[in-house]
Amino acid sequence: MSEKFILNAGTTDPNKILPIKYKWARTHYKNGVNNNWVPDEVNMQKDFETWKSANGLTDDERRLIMWNMGFFSTAESLTANNIVLNVYKNVTNPECRQYLLRQAYEEAIHTDTFIYCCESLGIAPDDVYNAYNKIPSIHEKDEFVVNMTKSIMDPNFTTDTLENKQKFVHDLIGYYVIMEGVFFYAGFVMMLSFMRQNKMVGIGEQFQFILRDESVHLAFGMDLITAIIEENPDIWTAELKSTIIENIKRAVELEIIYAKDCLPRGILGLNAEAVSQYVQYVADRRLERLGLANVYNVENPFPWMSEIIDLKKEKNFFETRVTEYKSGGSLNWD
Ligand code: MN
Ligand code: FE
After folding, report:
1. Catalytic: which of 22, 99, 116, 176?
2. Ligand 2 midpoint to CA 299 (Å)
3. 111 alpha carbon, closest ligand
4. Which class would CATH give 24-325?
5. What is the pTM of this model?
6. Known catalytic membership, residue 99
7. How many Å lie between the centroid of ligand 1 and the Cα of residue 111?
8. Domain limits of the chain?
9. What's the Cα-to-Cα distance from 286 to each of 75, 283, 300, rounded to whole Å?
10. Averaged pLDDT, groups of 10, the chain, 334 residues long
């Protein structure tokens, strides 16, 4: 039997999932399934009342919600398209493909979340979906990812050559590490801050579910990228590494511009400086995971985010989720 590889599985049967070589792909798949949820499970009644009431939220809080919905609503479709149209085609290993199918479904759930939020809060869809066109700091983030993942959009793209394998890894880092691993994180910390202040708890819960899915997407992406590099060590050149570092640094700049736009004044125990520092902290974790040196060396200004993401994920988070999903009760993470 010929050995399995992530790319160019042409010599093996791409449909033959057993025996599984990449156990991490299976683990992420199982974690995704255990984390099953749909937006309609979350009661939005209280959010609706707060949203409709004249003094339920300040103008700054209202804008923060609209902008984050605006960014995420289009970003979710962008990642879904990347997975289905590009990644799936080039990652020919069947256990990785099984995970990609699961991830694609989760991206559909995330897209559905913003449909559900618009409907339950009575927000005009154009006010959310036009953010991409109207708000420069959102447009720039999306454009950055679109441009970074252009080469593999070519229908004739293959991973046959060393140069194209480098392009593929470069683009995978574009959407797993930069889009899902950096560009989502200022938004996550802002939206989860509402929950911590006991405001707009329904939409906060929706973002918490998305965060937990995304942390699995990111973990899969990192395993995928590092496995491709291990199998093709000659692609990981000093030049590619420095391009990746520059891309991540630029992404951090764009995310900081976005955070400053969203938070012209401090609200909800947040300010643009702390969110910027959080983005830098997160970017260093991504660089480390890729075996690259830290750039920022800053403390995590929001240790409670790590608690949500790192501590509960492996241990009680999935178990908690499953129990609560079965009981159908309201969700309480703390
Ligand atoms: Mn998503
Ligand atoms: Fe995702």
Report:
1. 116
2. 26
3. 1
4. mainly alpha
5. 0.91
6. no
7. 8
8. 24-325
9. 19, 5, 14
10. 75 78 97 94 96 93 94 90 91 95 97 95 90 90 88 86 96 95 95 93 94 95 98 98 98 96 91 96 98 97 85 43 40 47
